[in-house]
Amino acid sequence: MQHVAPSLINMKQRQLEMILEQLKAFSAPSAALEQYSTPAPIAAQLLHFAYLRGDIWHKQVVDLGCGTGILAIGAALLEATATGVDADERALQMAQMNADAAGINVTWVKSPIQDFQGAYDTVVMNPPFGAQKRHSDRPFLLKATEVGKVIYLLHNAIVNDFVRRFLEPNRVTDAMRIKLPLAHSFKFHKQEVRYIDAILYRIETFT
Length: 207
Known about the structure:
The chain has one domain: Rossmann fold (3-Layer(aba) Sandwich), CATH 3.40.50. Helix 3 links the parallel strand 1 and strand 2. Helix 1 (6-20) crosses helix 2 and helix 2 packs across helix 3 (70-77). It is built from 6 helices and 7 strands; from the N terminus they run ααβαβαββαβαββ. The chain is an alpha/beta fold.
């Protein structure tokens, strides 16, 4: 991997974050689908980390459960060949609008996550945590191990033990704890912003 001066690394991440901040989020998110938008600073952190590990630039990257497309679009901005997959037509329409606004090309696929097929260098995803529908994260975790060589995953820290067991025998190479801000999106939310202890994983698979 090419070494870059720290000042340039930080500037590139901030530039990416500034672009991603301009993308549109869900106008009417579904609580059942846990359609939380990934905050731009977190998306930029995930993607820049993957970029520095050599898993983005000129790679085939897929965003599973892409929503309005922030991770797929960010990957494309870092010169990946990016694909976004989601079962929600409305989300994909917004994702296409965001890609057009950013001036980049992303392939969007409408598909239930269980039915999606492919082979990719890298998976990036912020899947449902299973807060509204128990075990809703499992199809995403399983599909990621099927289609990707490397996975970058955001998940709730309280299920760390489960995530590691579920992903075996695939290898967790990195696990960084972060504070994930969830903005007030649904009527049952009591706070304008709630912070969740989350973990950003890097996983190497045996695909």
